[in-house]
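STRUCTURE:
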């Protein structure tokens, strides 16, 4: 007698800060790279349209694209700025459900400390993105953990800890 195969699910964080149970076979693998750009007590962030929370500039690495090329491309598309990668900062594995498109991802997120070649964000160079808007410099002293998209709060904590020298 053949037994029916058990349908396995995984809990994913949704863009609206909910948790959603998704069948594993719906997951798409996604490697991505993000820039942490600090300058004079400020950090460069994007506002997420769906949640209103902040995120770091960056995004998906395309097949055949190096991490560095992907990071520079994504930052340029989202902020109009050219960056230089300084060093690897953090890795995060994340299961993510993107509600607006009904898509689920098993993400490997790579975070790098970067330096911007210019600090002036030119809105004319920023590509229209379905999810990111309003790139800008945010004072770290006014930024709260809850202002950051939930999966990125861990990275925020690490940045703040490093800045305090802990």
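SEQUENCE:
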């Amino acid at each position: 007698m053949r037994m029916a195969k058990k349908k396995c699910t995984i809990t994913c964080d949704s863009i609206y800060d909910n948790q959603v149970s998704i069948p594993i076979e719906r997951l798409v693998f996604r490697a991505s790279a993000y820039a942490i750009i600090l300058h004079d007590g400020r950090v460069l962030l994007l506002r997420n349209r769906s949640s209103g929370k902040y995120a770091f500039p960056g995004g998906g690495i395309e097949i055949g694209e190096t991490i560095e090329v992907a990071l520079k491309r994504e930052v340029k598309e989202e902020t109009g700025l050219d960056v230089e990668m300084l060093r690897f900062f953090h890795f995060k594995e994340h299961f993510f459900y993107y509600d607006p498109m009904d898509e689920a991802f098993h993400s490997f997120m790579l975070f790098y400390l970067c330096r911007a070649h210019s600090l002036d964000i030119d809105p004319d160079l920023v590509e229209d993105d379905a999810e990111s808007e309003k790139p800008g410099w945010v004072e770290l002293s006014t930024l709260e953990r809850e202002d950051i998209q939930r999966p990125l709060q861990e990275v925020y904590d690490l940045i703040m800890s490093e800045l305090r020298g802990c």
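REMARK: The beta strands are 9-14, 19-23, 27-39, 42-48, 54-55, 58-60, 83-98, 103-116, 132-139.
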